[in-house]
UniProtKB/TrEMBL annotation, chains A, B:
NCBIfam families: nst (TIGR00803). The chain crosses the membrane at residues 82-102, 108-129, 167-189, 237-258, 265-286, 292-310. This is Uncharacterized protein. One of its GO terms (molecular function) is pyrimidine nucleotide-sugar transmembrane transporter activity.
Amino acid sequence: MAGVPANRNTLLAALCLTIATSAQSLLTTASKNSKGSYDYNVATVPFLSELIKLCVSSFLLYRAHKADPRGTQITTDWRNVLLFPVPSLVYLLHHSITFPLLRYVDPATYQILGNLKIVTTGLASVFVLGKRLPQIKWISLVLLTIGTTTSQLSSSSGSIFSAPAQGYLLGVANACLSAFAGVYTEYLMKKNDDSLHWQNVQLYSFGVLFNAIRLTVDDLSAGFEKGFWAITLTDGYDVVTVFVVLNLAFSGLLVSVIMKFADTIAKVFATSLAMMVTPFAAYFLFNIVPSFPLMLGIVIACISVHLYYASQKDLFELSEVPKAGLTKIPSLKEVPIPASDTEKTEKV
Amino acid sequence: MAGVPANRNTLLAALCLTIATSAQSLLTTASKNSKGSYDYNVATVPFLSELIKLCVSSFLLYRAHKADPRGTQITTDWRNVLLFPVPSLVYLLHHSITFPLLRYVDPATYQILGNLKIVTTGLASVFVLGKRLPQIKWISLVLLTIGTTTSQLSSSSGSIFSAPAQGYLLGVANACLSAFAGVYTEYLMKKNDDSLHWQNVQLYSFGVLFNAIRLTVDDLSAGFEKGFWAITLTDGYDVVTVFVVLNLAFSGLLVSVIMKFADTIAKVFATSLAMMVTPFAAYFLFNIVPSFPLMLGIVIACISVHLYYASQKDLFELSEVPKAGLTKIPSLKEVPIPASDTEKTEKV
């Protein structure tokens, strides 16, 4: 997106996504009842959030079209529309793998395996979208994976090597699905100059549809034990649950902006950093002291973001000669050391 | 040291130093008796090792001088010779801080604080030697510090924040002393074109002297309970102890080569990597399974080495367009994504 003036807005969107993702996990925790379970049907949250996103996007599309009917490009070719259910389908598959996966690995290992999606997103960007990433960006993606993993280290991480092979295979499959869904959405958003709102309307329509199907299937398999979901939709909701839904919808809209004007990798950076913002918010909210591995992980993740987005000049340009504050020993300045050793010399 | 043909030899020396440093900790452990303590006087090891280095360097100096009397530069100006006791003195100070430091912090925290010497060595190289390091090298030094710290994470690392302020101050002081001793030695080795062997003869002469003084002071404070050290010098030595001494001498000689032809930072990289080689050697020798944090630490440290020594071109040049192995969906190649996004765009 070289030269897109929306650059600053994209950065803002990414920052908002970090905060919203972090808020999502805090709100979800806050929405639990005193026994640690949920009083509401958890699967209604993504349904309602897709519905809200659809309403918002339809409204924005209507307004944009009214203001500038020629500038608001809308492709209604069915071959194009039919590309939009794919992300919903992939996410559904991704979701259905999670439960068998958790049968093979414990939650700590599950969380650590989830970090693989950072690297698989890079791979998918290259192999599916045909992007080209220089070595430094690969290094920063690996560092981000390690940083998020380090931040999750706990006494239970010892079990990471004890899962059966199926567990790791499913974990890798899950990371690949997640990456594919991401880059495919990016592809949808960038493949033509259609209005973002029109693209979202298509995306969220299928989102609403597939979530409705899922809720119906759940009801069928439970024999309508708790009634029909469309009737009991907001049973057990309180004000926190409403915020859970609204925040999820807000996050989704931010993701589509980032996909359109930046890329999936920027989204992955934003959501990965959220994993580290959350414990700090937990510190201020619940006085839970952040762990030492978390702090190490945060530093690694920040370095990773910097390496990914810093310019070559910033990284390699030599800083000004330091002021001789500590160099009171004048003879020490006589040392014949070459000023520049950035190149191939001293390859130790 | 741009253009020095000894480049490959320096790399070899650094690799040998990594192995020798790793072997040192394994040999030292192996030299313990069945009760976990030492049958010999531990302080005799550095003394004997300095003595061996002095003998080896004297012999090499004699040979070099015989072969090429004009090419073997020897500065005997006393003002120059008097610079050489400084490293021994600083190491003595460094050593004497260790015990009060261990009164304030536990061994795990002590080990983690020790990693600060990586960053202080970078600072000392800049402020004492007047070197200039680009941002990417600072980042890799910070990463190496984090990598070694991550590799040391254990259930006891929780205590890292529980030490009193004096502990951290002494830890930082210790890291600064270690860094200063390092860059000062580098300065000595590079300040003129004197023969490396002559520089070593001076360095190790003072090393022998100060270690002898230390052993005498120890004996005096113990009231010659165990006799005079010069007489009981090798009491309790076995074949492993001999290897401990020889390996320490060998490591020391390697360090002086690295200081002369590369720099202190290369030495720090070599010895830091050794901390990670050791547990792997322990795996093959004693079947102790390496921990997960250790593996994360190793990857971080390897990335750090690569970032420090890789060329700008290697890091930023775009790789070849990937072969369209997975890109079977032809329409996915139509996405109008800019090929190069290495520059300031997408600053998220």
